[in-house]
């Protein structure tokens, strides 16, 4: 019995040493990030949300602001597939990491949070319509791809839209 307990103790000790030695020991202890819009994570300097670029001095929202031609495809519970084309305008919201999408669904304005090229639409209302979704901005194509859903009365829809900057 003593022998089995000793073996178990040695096994658990070896296992603990293995896990401890495999831990990422990168810290921010001696890392100094330059610029006002940076902070350290696991030994690396990163930009605060709303800023980007090599020096974290470029506003992320700037690439989003402008007029867009929207090509939208929705699958709805009441009307099947629908393809729509209309215009939207994106402007700066209440902070550097929030934009306002004006003319969303051709109905009104919503707010979206941006993080570099990612955009997130939290659940919100445009009149009697509830929307939510996410997307990604492609700077080289000057396009924003959105995937979202909305509920309007008894109708539910899932949509994909390509917004091309004009």
Give a written overview of the molecule.
There is one protein chain. An eight-stranded antiparallel β-barrel has the order 5-6-7-8-9-10-11-12. It has a two-stranded antiparallel sheet with strand order 1-2. A two-stranded antiparallel ribbon has the order 3-4. It is mainly β and 166 residues long. The longest helix has 20 residues. It folds into two domains: 34 residues, no CATH class; 104 residues, Lipocalin, CATH 2.40.128. It is built from one helix and twelve strands; from the N terminus they run H-E-E-E-E-E-E-E-E-E-E-E-E.
Write the layout of secondary structure elements.
Elements: H1 2-21, E1 38-41, E2 44-47, E3 51-52, E4 58-59, E5 66-76, E6 80-92, E7 98-104, E8 108-115, E9 118-126, E10 129-138, E11 143-152, E12 155-165
Antiparallel strand pairs: 1-2, 3-4, 5-6, 5-12, 6-7, 7-8, 8-9, 9-10, 10-11, 11-12
Keywords summarizing the entry:
single chain, 166 residues, mainly beta, Lipocalin, 2 domains, 8-stranded antiparallel beta barrel, two-stranded antiparallel ribbon, 1 helix, 12% helix, elongated
Number of domains: 2
Count of beta strands: 12
Structural class: mainly beta
- What fraction strand? over 45%
Q: In terms of per-residue confidence, which ranges show pLDDT below 50 for 5 or more consecutive residues?
A: none
> Could you give the order of the helices and strands?
HEEEEEEEEEEEE
Query: Any idea what the radius of gyration is?
Result: 24 Å
Q: What share of the residues lie within helices? A: 10-25%
Short description:
With 166 residues, this protein is mostly beta strands. The protein contains 1 helix and 12 strands; from the N terminus they run H-E-E-E-E-E-E-E-E-E-E-E-E. Helices cover 12% and strands 55% of the residues.
């Amino acid at each position: 019995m003593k022998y089995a307990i000793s073996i178990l103790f040695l096994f658990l000790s070896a296992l603990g040493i293995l896990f401890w030695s495999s831990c990422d020991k990168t810290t921010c202890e001696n890392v100094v990030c330059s610029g006002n819009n940076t902070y350290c994570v696991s030994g690396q300097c990163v930009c605060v949300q709303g800023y980007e670029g090599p020096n974290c001095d470029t506003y992320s929202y700037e690439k989003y602001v402008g007029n867009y031609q929207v090509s939208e495809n929705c699958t709805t519970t009441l009307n099947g597939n629908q393809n729509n084309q209309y215009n939207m305008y994106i402007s700066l919201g209440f902070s550097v990491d929030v934009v306002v999408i004006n003319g969303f669904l051709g109905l009104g304005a919503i707010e979206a949070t941006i993080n570099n090229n990612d955009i997130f639409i939290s659940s919100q209302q445009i009149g009697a319509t509830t929307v939510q979704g996410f997307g990604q901005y492609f700077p080289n194509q000057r396009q924003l791809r959105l995937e979202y859903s909305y509920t309007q009365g008894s109708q539910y829809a899932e949509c994909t839209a390509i917004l091309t900057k004009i």
